[in-house]
Amino acid sequence: MSRREEAAGYERVLELDVKLGQVSIRNPRAAPGELPKTFTFDAVYDASSKQADLYDETVRPLIDSVLQGFNGTVFAYGQTGTGKTYTMQGAWAEPEKRGIIPSAFEHIFTHISRSQNQQYLVRASYLEIYQEEIRDLLAKDQSKKLELKENPETGVYIKDLSSFVTKNVKEIEHVMNLGSQTRSVGSTNMNEHSSRSHAIFLITIECSETGPDGEEHIRVGKLNLVDLAGSERQNKMGAHGERPKEASKINLSLSALGNVISALVDGRSTHIPYRDSKLTRLLQDSLGGNAKTIMVATLGPASHSYDESLSTLRFANRAKNIKNKPRVNEDPKDTLLREFQEEIVRLKAQLEKRGMLGKKRRRSSRRKKAMDGEGTVENEGEDDNEEGLEKNMENYLKEQKERLEEEKAAIQDDHSLVSEEKQKLLQEKEKMIEDLRKEQEATELLAIKYKVHVTTQGRGKDPLCPQPLTACGNGPQAGSLCQEHTRVPRQRGLSARCPGRAPERP
User: Fold this and answer.
1) How many Å separate Cα 313 from the centre of its chain?
2) What is the model's pLDDT at position 214?
3) What integer pLDDT is reported at residue 252 of this predicted model?
4) Per DSSP, what are the bridge partners of residue 133?
């Protein structure tokens, strides 16, 4: 509680359990015996918690994701005067009181300085939404109002928003300080330095890295650091002139934010009202879209803030149920390449696993042969291994196809995506399904070729081809396949089987 609240004789109505992540709020006007309302969150921080605790436990993993190419958003929400700006910015001069924004600056450039074989480009922008008008806090002409635009590929953006390349912590802090000097603030009964606008500090991190194919691959992570203006009640604000009008616009945009969150959580809504305010339009990706998002809800513990604190708790409780769909921002070709590389790694692991099983079977066959004196058990383990591997590959390809179909259906059912973005994602999934089909065909050809090779090894000739396997003669080409075996063109580096009917198992 603040000194002003203690001097006024207000009682404390909030209780926080840091270990359980619970917040309990008691109605000061409740009848005797009425139980307090309890809310559970991912993490709870009380007055004794440090700024570093919040950053290290909650925000640091998000910044790591942004450096990997994801979009990330951190925003503070709550009643005016409850510490939103302090949470986001803190006291820059005191290391222990530095907020989320300066800590994120330090984190980003420390990571870049330690990275190897990677090149980074960091750009910073700073804007505010004041009375539903967008202003560039880094522009020379502060009277210019900016427009919101939408690109089918990149989503919502602000036309003519200035962006500055920064190479270290000092430079990006300088950009932040310049913008903060022009931000709209004012004094009210609730807060001497009240933010009268929503401010968004946008950091774009581009990373160029050489891939296994020897080519440069670029991924882009965007970090939105949002300091929302506080919700206010006119009778408590005690301000005149522009302040009531500012408060009205602030409350309208926060109400639109609440409606968007309610629609996303509801699940039955066919329309998400992102366009009701510029704030929700800008945060569209952060709410139910392509981003990892953290909301920090700040609360007033005094009894006179009961209604606002309860409203904030309910708001945060709804927001935590939103399910976003974050993905790495990279070129679609790079995305496909990465997924194929991951599939190759999984296939190699499966092959190694099956190979170990085959070795065990062969050892078992040799022991049985030694004990029973039978000479025909040698190849049984290899045959079982071959059949198991082929079956395993079929199951894997079937699972991948089912997964892609599920993702395709999820995209079609996602009402938060604009039509252009949805069409693009569906085209990508269709292409991946087609590539998977081609991979399945190539796998089948490989299996057939392997069977032909095993069959002819035992007989010296392919029963379906008049030429023996070693028909190329002696010398450098001895032991190579005849032209009849290699007549079909190669697909994905695999030779197709010899023309004729399918080979029978020996």
Assistant:
1) 25
2) 78
3) 87
4) 130
Report residues of the chain scoring pLDDT below 70. 1, 184-195, 231-243, 331-341, 353-363, 366-394, 396-397, 411-422, 446-506
- Written as six digits, the tokens of 126 are 């700073």
Q: How far apart are CA 53 and CA 45, in angstroms?
A: 8
**Per-residue DSSP letters for 367-382?**
HHHHHH--SS-TTHHH
Determine the Cα–Cα distance for residues 238 and 194; give it in Å rounded to an integer.
13
Which residue is it, tokens 């074989």? 117
Q: What is the DSSP letter of 71?
A: -
DSSP conformational letter for 498:
P
> In this structure, what token pair is assigned to residue 323?
């399910």
CA dihedral 408, 410, 413, 419 (to 10 degrees): -50
- Range 333-341, long-range pairs (CB < 8 A, 24+ positions): 334/211, 334/217, 334/218, 334/219, 335/428, 336/428, 336/431, 336/432, 336/435, 337/211, 337/213, 337/217, 339/432, 340/435, 341/212
Question: Distances in Å between the alpha carbon of 496 and those of 221, 320, 412, 457?
Answer: 43, 54, 38, 17
Q: Summarize pLDDT for 129-154 with one digit per residue, the tens.
A: 988 899 999 988 888 889 998 887 77
Asked whether the beta carbons of 96 and 310 are under 8 A apart, the reply is: no
Q: Are 354 and 392 in contact (CB under 8 A)?
A: yes
pLDDT of 211 reads 76
Choose among 273, 203, 189, 263: nearest CA to 233: 189
The structure tokens listed for 78 are 């709550």
What is the Cα Rg of the chain in Å? 32
Give the separation between CA 301 and CA 144, rounded to whole angstroms.
Answer: 40
Please report the pLDDT score of residue 216 as a whole number: 80
Helix axes 332-372, 419-459, angle to 10 degrees: 30
pLDDT digits 0-9 by tens, 257-285: 989 998 888 777 788 899 889 999 988 88
What pLDDT, on the 0 to 100 scale, is given for residue 409? 73
**Biggest alpha carbon–alpha carbon distance for the chain:** 104
What is the pLDDT at residue 400?
A: 72
Closest CA to 88 of 79, 108, 77: 77
Q: How many CB atoms lie within 10 A of CB 473?
A: 10
Lookup: tokens for 278: 């510029």
For residues 429 and 437, the answer to whether their CB atoms sit within 8 Å is no
Spatial separation of the C-alpha atoms in residues 433 and 413, rounded to whole Å? 19
Write down the pLDDT at residue 140: 86
